[in-house]
Amino acid sequence: MSDFNPINLLFEDMEKLGPGSNSDTLKVLDMLPKSVHEVIVDAGCGAGRHTLALANELQTPVHAVDSYEPFLASLTQRAKEAGIEHLVQTHCMDMADIPNTFREIDLLWPEGAAYNIGFPHALKTWHSAVKSSGFAVVSELSWLRDDVPVEVRQFFQAGYPDMRSVNENRSVAQDAGYNVLTTHTLPRETWVEGYYDILEPRAKALLDHLDKVVRDFAAETLEEIRIFGCSEDSYGYVFYVMQKA
Ligand SMILES: C[S@@+](CC[C@H](N)C(=O)[O-])C[C@H]1O[C@@H](n2cnc3c(N)ncnc32)[C@H](O)[C@@H]1O
What we know:
10 helices; alpha/beta; globular; binds S-adenosylmethionine
């Protein structure tokens, strides 16, 4: 950890760059009514925890899309270590350009990443790239209840004002041309194990870093973790399991 890039300093060598677990990824995969998919695209794959889980389970090549090359390099390395490098093809590109690169996608799998271009915008943008009756499994931070602790509401009003309820996101999906088959909310422990439990001590250690950008990023991360601790399950990461209408 020798540079001043806050992303590298906080996330270097991490397998998970967001909440999630292989068992949840595979549970959601199992919710699809079909188990054979030819063209699979994992958008915003990061270091590719779920890319590897999908490739290994389906024994089918997965196109792994991310705009940050170091994450893709990490994924390639992990794929080699797992002996499945032949099942992972990385693409360093903007996920918004997926329709220009891929056609007739059978399974589009953006886990914890669609928010980068906005959930509604992402679903509309990707629609033309998904095959007729193909599947899109997209996870999105969502309100789970109406009664939200005040400081939690305030935190997200500033940090993610576009956050919607599950019902609102279902409507967004329908308006974008998908049928929502089912949803799945990540259990609380998948935020902590291998994610917040690694990030928290790293962020604490960076609070007195020389660079203010790094210090601020570390402080924001710690505030996010604190808010999670007092969230009373008012929000969560929800998978929307969709089929192109
Ligand atoms: C919160 S991380 C989640 C990574 C991974 N899906 C996971 O759960 O471990 C979001 C990822 O989206 C990528 N990303 C952000 N904007 C992007 C864009 N416009 N196109 C492609 N990837 C993008 C980031 O580089 C990062 O890897």
